Amino acid sequence: xxxxxxxxxxxxxxxxxxxxxxxxxxxxxxxxxxxxxxxxxxxxxxxxxxxxxxxxxxxxxxxxxxxxxxxxxxxxxxxxxxxxxxxxxxxxxxxxxxxxxxxxxxxxxxxxxxxxxxxxxxxxxxxxxxxxxxxxxxxxxxxxxxxxxxxxxxxxxxxxxxxxxxxxx
Length: 169
Description:
Elements: E1 3-7, H1 9-15, H2 21-32, E2 37-39, H3 41-47, H4 58-65, E3 68-70, H5 79-96, H6 105-120, E4 125-130, H7 133-145, E5 152-156, H8 157-164
Helix pairs in contact: 3-6, 5-6, 5-7, 6-7
């Protein structure tokens, strides 16, 4: 059974810099479990700055080390990808009581990337690691409505980090 592990901006922000114990714990977890965390392009763009005076962000180190990667562009020519993106934006908007067009597209890209892979059969299960509860629950809900309810698992990013380092403060 093949799986895809998708991460959001919040998880990398919560992990901190390379010297941080949370960063080291996630790297160790990925290596021990032979996992490559995949970031939608929009997430990667949120995490990086195109400025030569800024030190390379931790996400670039994770990519260089081989335990993270940036996904290929989303294929919006597939209606299911667009539906997932729109559905999660609406879900988050309702949960946060704000207009859907104000919801960050990076949050909805988690679901779009997941369904893109599930619908083509390249993976049979997807884990969504996010610190945004509405994005995680929205992804599960929207993808369940598309018939992938048993294939998607929302992993609360903060809880994931706590479980890796229960004594870290």
